Amino acid sequence: MKHKNILLTVGVMLMAIMSFSACEDMLTVDTGDKLYENANDTLYSYLGIMKCVQNIAERQVILNEVRGDLVNSTEYVTDTLHAISNFEDPADGTCSMLNISDYYAVINNCNLYIANADTSKVKSNIKYMMPEYAQVQAVRAWTYLQLVNLYGEVPFISEPIQNLDVVKNFDYKNNLVNKDNLIDKFIALGLDKYVDTEYPEYGNYDNGARSIRARLLFIPVRLVLADMYLLRGASQADYVSAAQYYYEFLKNTNSIVTEQYCIAREMRGDYIYTAYNWGSYGATYSYSRNNDVISLIPSSANKQFGTMLLRVADIFGYTPTSSQINETSTNDDGEEENSTSGAITVEPNYKAQIVPSNEYKALNKAQMYVTWNTLNMARTYEEKAGDARYYQSVREFSHEGESYSLASKAASGFTFYYTIPIYRKCLVWLRLAEAINRAGYPQIAFAILKDGLNDVNWPKTGMEREVPVVLLDENGEPMFDEEGNVLYQTDEDGNTVMVTEVYTRYNQNGAMHYVDDEEADNFFLDFSDEMWEDNYGIHARGCGYGSWGSNTASKTTNITGYYDDEYYDWDPILKAQGVSESASKDDIINAIENVICDELALELAFEGYRFSDLVRMANHKNASGFYGTKWLAAKIADRNARQASNDGTVTEIPRDEELYAKLQNTSLWYLSKPEWTVK
Questions:
Q1: Smallest Cα–Cα separation from 151: which of 79, 70, 56?
Q2: How far, in Å, are 45, 447, 468, 476, 479 from residue 472 at the CA level?
Q3: CA distance 161 to 177
Q4: Residues 573, 512: Cα–Cα separation, whole Å
Q5: pLDDT on residue 647
Q6: The predicted structure's pLDDT at residue 225
Q7: CB-based contact 422:537 (threshold 8 Å)
Q8: Residue 211 backbone dihedrals phi, psi, to 5 degrees
């Protein structure tokens, strides 16, 4: 029998890697005061899995970016990457980035671990296997999520493949997983039981050049569940579930968009000075609540220390070089000790295969940088400055008199960073905005971008106030005097009767939404806690911000501000999307989703999310009666249809009509799976 199946390479082939000790090299960490009976209990098993995750890390970035609207391929691009970029559906195995078996290698190792781990073991009254067991569950779920994003529908295997009988007896027809049933599969497996399980305590991972906190290697279960609900988006309930998980994570980890993350500082000529660069995120090696990076995949400094992740830098136009340093020292006993370390350096070159697209540059140029002058208390609008995040994402490089633009997050400042972030706080905030918008609260979603949700900006529920009792007529309608003033009940002394009323306070900023009693039950709509006090809007990260602290008066000077109706406010934003404030709620939700999509581009360009984001939003638009397929096709076909010059002038370039027509076929949104024959 013959199936469209990817198991051809995970049958016998995975037998060679199902033993964790068979990995070519291992991540090694300082485990500190561990609670393991022996190393094979947990340490090498989980880190063997992470070794396999390293094998798929860079293709997550490359495959999601090369098919998106933020990059374009050059004359130096390989044939296979060019085919992927133009949706020519290259076969699995065409190149190293199109080997689906590498994903199933991760999954099979997870399945082996889950099948064999004894989570009942106790030491010092602690089930010490549970933290790592929960993380293996998270890694397996995250890997399936990436497979569904890339391939659309794939076989779901939850038991280890240790012999061909498992493959031969696999019920392919009834075990396919896609965006519609992925969350159900993992809820049935009990993934949600591990949302509060503590992380393992491993200490640090030595990659030969840096000591990376091992805690950063772990994936939050809540975020994986949230992503799965957001991906499905079959109903308002799915969006509510996604929002709840995102909100819980942000609240439990005290993850706000702090002032230090608002990177735009001031204008210096035509250049926006920024205090932060991408190295502040990509070069996150230690763990802190203030870090933006939540989870990452590490790279090693040379082969002696493990897997080196060099392809992203290479494809984006940097030549990486690895070195090894051997040193000899004398200890206190007079004995010689040898130590080895390494380093990776990068040099820019003009043969980048993938470069920032015209559309990405034009989107940045279209943003207005705003400064707040504390001397005369006035805003200054720099129309030609654009978004400051551009200078963190693109680096200009000159070669033989020619200028080249390089996507620089892979090597910001021409420095190699030894990590690939997979979750960071700003990503979670933007996905929360996406979920809240689709759950039916577009004003609140926009407020996440605009000013940030906090006690000052937020509609408060459950507040009490004294209000007069209105005098009603026999029909229960309010009564008025001759001048049209409302009449109130009075007591026998002529005093107005007052009663205590529970109400919702809301103000005139981006939220602009009255939260009724039923909505107040959605705890993800509660930002009244003081922990959110210094929370900023995401858009301020690239377009300036005011100098505001914890008091109401100073917060009104935020970049987009309560009273800033000239630029980034509700009315002009809807108008820019061709929607009036009186439009239907569905039209407004669709328009705000487009704004969120732009913010995702400005904040997360070249990090490996773009095409999956576009597909997810296109599917949501289709499901809600909008033209999601044409929307996505236009995004990709227009990636070079606008060219912005330094003076802000935009030149329109014809759309790639052939690509636009091709992308009406939604099957091309996903990579091809191989066939498999079982005899």
A1: 56
A2: 73, 38, 12, 5, 6
A3: 18
A4: 14
A5: 61
A6: 98
A7: no
A8: -100, 110
Per-residue model confidence (pLDDT) at position 8: 40
State which amino acid sits at residue 617: M
Closest CA to 202 of 33, 57, 77: 33
Rounded to 5 degrees, φ, ψ at 245 are: -70, -40
* Cβ atoms of residues 641 and 654 within 8 Å: yes
- Position 56 scores a pLDDT of 96
Using the Cα atoms of residue 14, residue 20, residue 23 and residue 28 in order, give the sign of their dihedral. positive
CA distances from 410 to 159, 294, 423, 472 (A): 36, 18, 16, 68
Q: How far apart are the first and last CA of the chain?
A: 7
CB 71 within 8 A of CB 354: yes
What distance in Å separates the CA atoms of residue 228 and residue 80, rounded to the nearest whole number? Answer: 30
CA distance 309 to 302: 10
Contact partners, residue 52, CB within 8 Å, separation at least 6? 17, 23, 102, 105, 106, 109
Query: Among positive and negative, which fits the CA dihedral 124, 130, 133, 134?
Result: negative
Q: Mention every residue, 6+ apart, whose C-beta is less than 8 A from residue 373.
A: 379, 380
Count the Cβ atoms, other than its own, within 10 Å of residue 126: 12
Q: The pTM is what?
A: 0.86
Cα 249 from Cα 222, distance rounded (Å): 7
Q: How far is CA 667 from CA 59, 151, 402, 613, 619, in A?
A: 20, 9, 39, 16, 12
Separation of alpha carbons 554 and 374, rounded Å: 11
Secondary structure (H, E, C), 324-371: EEEEEEECCCCCEEEEEEEEEEEEECCCCCEEECHHHHHHHHHCCEEE
Other C-beta atoms within 10 Å of 71: how many?
26
Whole-number Å distance between alpha carbons of 96 and 90 = 12
pLDDT at residue 506, as a whole number: 46
Residue pair 614/71 in contact (Cβ under 8 Å)? The answer is no
Measure the CA–CA gap between 286 and 212, rounded to whole angstroms.
Answer: 6
Query: Is the CB of residue 612 less than 8 Å from the CB of residue 574?
Result: no
DSSP state of 472: B
Q: Do 203 and 31 form a contact (C-beta atoms < 8 A)?
A: yes
Nearest-CA neighbor of 105 among 132, 129, 134, 140? 140
User: What's the rounded Cα separation, in Å, for the pair 535 and 427?
Assistant: 15
Cα dist from 485 to 4, 482, 501, whole Å: 74, 7, 21
DSSP code per residue over 378-419: EEEEETTT--TTHHHHEEEEEETTEEEEEE-GGGGGG---SE
**Residue of 192, 193, 181, 187 whose CA lies nearest to 156:** 181
Per-residue b/e over 368-383, b at no fewer than 16 CB within 10 Å?
bbbbbeeeeeebeebe
The reported pLDDT for the residue numbered 543 is 82
Q: Are 597 and 582 in contact (CB under 8 A)?
A: no
The 10s digit of each residue's pLDDT in 389-423 is 888 889 888 988 899 999 988 887 788 888 999 99
* Distance of alpha carbon 215 from alpha carbon 247, whole angstroms: 21
Backbone angles phi and psi of 327, in degrees to 5:
-130, 145
**Long-range pairs for 326-329: beta carbons < 8 A, 24 or more residues apart:** none
Res 98: pLDDT: 93
pLDDT at 512: 46
Q: Are 676 and 8 in contact (CB under 8 A)?
A: yes
Residues of the chain short of pLDDT 50, as ranges, are 1-26, 29-43, 506-514, 546-564, 679
CA distance linking residue 268 with residue 365, whole number of Å: 16
Torsion of CA 649, 655, 660, 662, to 10 degrees: -130
